Structure formats: C-alpha cells, structure tokens
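Hello,

Following up on my earlier ticket. Below are the two sequence lines again, exactly as submitted.
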Amino acid sequence: MAERLLEVRRLFKHFGGVVATDRLDLAVAAGGVHALIGPNGAGKTTLIAQICGEIVPDAGQVLFGGRDITALPAHERVALGLARSFQITRVFRNLTVRDNIALAVQARNGSSMRFWRPVAAERALGAEAEVVLAGLGMAALAALTAGSLPHADQRRLEVALALASQPRLLLLDEPLAGMGAEDAQAMIGLIAQLKERTTILLVEHDMDAVFRLANVISVLVGGRVIASGVPQAIRDDPEVRRAYLGEEEAAA
Amino acid sequence: MVFPFAADALGGGYYVGVATRVMIFALAASSLNLVVGYGGMISFGHAAFFGAGAYSVAILAQEGVVSALAAWPLAAAVSAACALVIGAVSLRTRGLYFIMITLAFAQMLYYFFVSLKAYGGEDGINLAARSRLPGLDLRDDATFYLVVLALLAVCLYLLKRLAASRFGAVLRGIRENEGRMTALGYPTYRFRLVCFVIAGGVAGLAGALIVNQHGFVSPNLLHWTQSGTLLIMLILGGVGRLYGGVAGAAAMLLLEEFLSNWTGYWQFSLGLVLLFVVLRAPGGIGSWFARGNSHG
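Thanks for your patience. The regenerated structure is below:
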C-alpha cells in the first residue's frame, strides 16, 4: 500500500446533542482519487471542515504526511499542502478571474505584509496565474469578472483556486453541485486530469462521477465510515447497498 | 496652497481655521475609511483613537514636551497601541458584535478620560500653545494650515499605495470572502489587525492636529457620537473611495458651518442630505468626482 498522505484517527465532533463525527477513522493514500460518499447529513462536509481546520474536533487526531496537524490553524495547513474547494461557490466575485488566481499564488509567494509596491507591478504573480488558468483550459476567461461567469465556469474557478495553492492533497467538496449533464461531464474530465498531478479527496453525490473517478471509495453513514475499498467492492458490499446506494445503483 | 493668503487678503482669516478643521477631520475620516471601506470592518469606536492622540499631545505639553517632532509621532503611537489592544479583542467578533464591542471599548476610554482628574476630568485640558516645529511657526494659522495640508496629502498618498499593494489586495480579498482567504492560506485575523492598528495610528495623528487647532481637548472628542460623526462623514463622502473621507468631512463641516449660521436646526438639514446620499448616491459624494478611484 502506498504512503498514507492523510490519516484521521478516532475523530469525534458533536453539536449539542447531534453527533456529526463519531470516532471516525479514515486513511487516504498518496495518488489518485479517494471518494467520500454518504447520504445527506452523514457528516461529510463537517469532516472536510475538520480536516481543513475550520472546525475543531472534540477528540481524535488528523495527521497529514505523518505529522499531527489537529491543533494547526487552517491557514497553516494550506502551507503544508492541504487545499479545498467549497460546495457553495466562494470565488471573489468582483475580481477578474486572473486576480482571483493571483491572490492564491500570492499566498504562497513571500510575505503579503507589503504596503508599498503595487501588486499589479509584480509580473510573476500574474504570469503564474495565467499558467494555472492555461493548464485548466481557462485562459480565455482571465480578464472576465468572476461574478459575471456562468455557474459552470464559477465552479471551475472554484476548483482552480484550490489548485493554485499547489496542494499535495486537494479536497473537492461536491464540485459537480448544481451542474447540468454536459458541464458535469466536462468537470469529470477536469478532475480526471488533476488526479495525475495531485491526490484528491472527493466528496460527491453524483455516483456516475464517483465510480468513474475514484480509486478508493469510503462510505460515510451517521458520522462513521461503514466501508472503505475499491469501487467494485463498495458496489458489491451488501451493507453499503442497504444503507446508501439506491435501487437504481444496485441494478446497475 | 494660496488659499490661506487669499483668504487673509480678503479679511477671511476665520476661514483658514475652518479649512484646517475640515482637513483634520478629513484625515480622521480617511483613517476610518481604511478600516471600514478597505478592511470591511464597521468600527463604531474610531473616536477613541482620535481622542487618545489629542490627549497625548495635551498631556505631553503639560509635562513639558512641546516639540511636534516628539509629540505627534508619540500621539500616533499611543493611538496605534490602543488600536492594537482594542483590535486584538474586537476582531475576534464579526458584524453587529464588532460594532458593539468597538463602541463599548471607546466608551471605556471616554470614561477613563472623564475620571482623569489630573488632566481636567470632564472639563478637559487646554493646550497652552501649539506644538513647536523647528523652522516653522505653527502659531501662525496659515503655516499650520499648510502643515496640515502636507500631512493630509502624504497620508492620502500612502493610503493609495497601500490599497494597490499586496497588503491592499489581501484586504480586498478578506472584505469580499474571508472564508476563501483562509482556505488560500492567509492568516486573515493578522491582516485585519494590522489594518486596524495603522488606521488607529493615523487617527491619533489627526487627534494631535485637532488639539493644536482647537487649543483644547475634552472627553467629548472620544464620545461615541463623535465616532458616529466620522462614520456619517464617510458615508456622505463615499465608503472605500480614496477621497471619501475628504469629501465627506468637507461636505459635513461646511454644511454645519453655513447652515448653523442660518438655522439652529442645521442637523435636520444634514439628515435630509444624508437621506438623499444614501438613497440616490450610495457611492457617496466622492463618487461624483473620482469614478476611477473606487475600491468598493
């Protein structure tokens, strides 16, 4: 088995009386796509937020590259190579696509406590942003205002922002959310491309996308992982079929 | 530049004082603009830093330090230090809570000066003479006017540089989407705090100037209504616009100046003007002059 890039150990989180994460264990190996599926309310987004440091767990550990990062603030985890995209699009709507990406590039290129030199004069930031966009086939959008883009392009920008952080582990939280069939196919193609470059932890409801992209699938139900394995094993797991996969998937 | 001499020649020395006052409030409102307009933090306690700067100069003068070169930077430093302490706590909150906690801190400072009997308490203290600058006679109103003008120009230029810098880009990102900035790896709290401290320091400098202009400072300068006045100036002039603070301070103080000669109810007219601006020109007066300078 490949090196464990991310390891979650006995993670526990409750909100009032609701247990969102119930002594959860998860290991993500380096390379490929590890998909996280589960019904609504299974605690997927809460888990992602704890891995990123936006929500502090009540107990348990998060290890990244062998290092315990449970107590590390969110922004420091990004520097270690942990980046995320959001289920609900969070781009800088009033900035151009290029400036959106340039902000991500700036974050990992020296101090931003600089008050004098115009950021527009830093050609390196803009140039690197162009490279990121070109690599995703988005070069033509560079000069457009992010808020003016159609939904599917904003979703691509959402992924591009995370990718511009040059993560070792990319967490994609429902990248296909709200997309039509055609745009969804394009996004699946994009993620298939990205998995050659970086490890991806993918949360997604679209089973077609999950089974096409994932090397490993973990099934989350009631805040715990009930099964983890290669797609075929998950498909055949009777407990998973009972708990989660619907009739149509079972028939497929 | 020629205004004070022209005004003097026309026998309007009084208006040099008015113009100086406008510029000092423009500086204070511009510093608030950095917090509200650029940083996206609605602070309702900015008068605390304005007043702390004024008191610093007055207290130093009473203790024998009259040099502007020592007292004014010290006033800015004292206000920046206040902003550091107040900001470190307040910036952990957001929105309405941030408004209330900055207001509460400012009122604490207000009551601190009210109870400071050694320095006038409620009555405040007089500044025996204006601060001294080598080579310049600040007692002369026209000279003081020019010094204030120069400081305002330098501060606006620095604000412009800051807005276009890396730091400014981060502020813009935080204002628009703080969660995403964290996800990109920015320690947003630190950036907001630095912004808050810089603004506090500039407000302190404005305070050092206003006590020299009035020759007097009392706790009223720190009262929460004064923070409200600075916010109203900013809304009038244009939040997040480089000249928003200047346009707003000029509009408000000149309205006060002329309307109060004409009616005791000038604040009623001010209310109407404010209504008009908020409803019909939400970009503020500044948006009519400098379309290209929007950072909002």
